[in-house]
Amino acid sequence: MVNNALQERQYQNWFKKYRAVDFDLKVTPRSGKPTQYKIKKLIQLNPYYMTREIAETFKISQKIVLVHLKIQRYVSKLDVCLSRVIKEVQLTARMKICDTLMER
To answer: In the chain, pLDDT over 90 holds for what percent of residues?
Structure first.
């Protein structure tokens, strides 16, 4: 796909404006839906937020919050959102445990 090519959605939006006799092709502000960054920042400030509370804060469905958390590799355990990324310390501890089990 060529970088300068317009997306199909852009054509649809322009056609909708044309039908409404609005010939202004400038981009209008979006509806303000939360981005993954905003949800991630909220979780970093307080990992004890429930997905329901996040959904109410941003006025979106709880399923969308779960999708955003899954994309960012967060998992909810005991009402705490934790990162799924394994840290170096955890990885070395797992390797040591595996080595001791193999020796047995």
So the answer is: 8
